[in-house]
Amino acid sequence: MIKAKQTVSGASLSGDQLSGKNVEDNWRVRWMTGYYYKVINENNRRVTVGLNNMIWHYDKDLSGYSLGQGGYYSPQEYLSFAVPVMWRQRTENWSWELGGSVSWSHSATVPCRVIR
């Protein structure tokens, strides 16, 4: 049996300036992390459990579809946590994967302006 690394983790921090035609400019900051632990890590079978989180902030809520809005999800606050579980297995003739996740999230926006 080949023994591989038991844990995987990662993080991402990004800041972006968003602009377009006939829409207000916007900026966002996003922080995302993830950690996975391989409970079973065999050649033909793997079970992993993880913990992920995301934190987002947009300067303006441009999620509306009226003139000047961007029509994209842009909350001023977004926070989420997830616990994913994945089971993978293969045999001589078949391979399969079964997974699911339990998550919690919170978002808040400032009401957008209506251009008249």
Automatic annotation (TrEMBL):
Domain Cellulose synthase operon C C-terminal span(s) in chain numbering: 11-108
An individual GO BP term: cellulose biosynthetic process
Entry GO terms, CC: outer membrane
Keywords of this entry: Repeat, Signal, TPR repeat
InterPro entries: BCSC_C
Keyword Secreted found: no
Region (Disordered): 1-20
Protein name as annotated: Cellulose synthase subunit BcsC
Taxonomic source organism: Salmonella enterica I
UniProt lineage: Bacteria, Pseudomonadati, Pseudomonadota, Gammaproteobacteria, Enterobacterales
Gene from which the chain derives: bcsC_1
